[in-house]
Amino acid sequence: MLTKANFAVHIGRLxxxxxxxxxxxxxxxxxxxxxxxxxxxxLVAQNTNANxxxxxxxxxxxxxxxxxxxxxxxxxxxxxxxxxxxxSSLDITNNSDSLKSVQVQVSATDFNxxxxxxxxxxxxxxxxVTFSGVNSVIYQTWIDASNTLNGYGGITSGPLSxxxxxxGNGGSLPQLDxxxxxxxxxxxxxxxxxxxxxxxxxxxxxxATTAVLTPVPEATSLLVWGAMLIPVGLVVRRSYxxxxxx
Length: 246
Description:
Blueprint: H1 4-27, E1 31-38, E2 44-51, E3 55-62, E4 65-74, E5 83-94, E6 100-111, E7 117-131, E8 134-144, E9 155-156, E10 160-163, E11 176-184, E12 189-199, E13 204-215, H2 218-245
């Protein structure tokens, strides 16, 4: 039977394994990548990989919230068929006696693929509740053509959210996923992902996200641009008809 005591021992063992894995992965990393966390205040950077695509990790405690092997990875500068940004957590536990709004953010810069033009941003999150008390989960991603680390401009998935308050120990988080088309105005660009969790005292959760940016195929691009131009055409036509009737 899983208890708080043996869960803590189990997590300790996993932390040692995960940190070892993180060192191996970091040795082959090639990216400018940052992980930041918040437990109710501003997001604070915890670790930065000075290169531009690879792996960054963090484990620690802030305001009685324990973070076990938070990991971010990217394939910056990107390559066909896609650019990617991933976030995962082995465990996040609220050991305080109050509700905590916990945020985990990963951001990477210097992406060059796809080139400027129509793109599709696809984002998804999954995970599980170790100990109940996870009230909600929100996931959002951004593609910022200003190439700003932790930038919130440009194309966004919008907030993908779900109520998780009824999920018991060992239950799965609601699957979050979404896809949007947008106009990428230039390169290089930054890629940012943010996960927000409301955790009751004693709640524990793990999650993994993935976000993918791909170019819109040329034939699809024509259809998308056509759909975008229909409202403009209607406005021009109405204006022209009003002039004829004047």
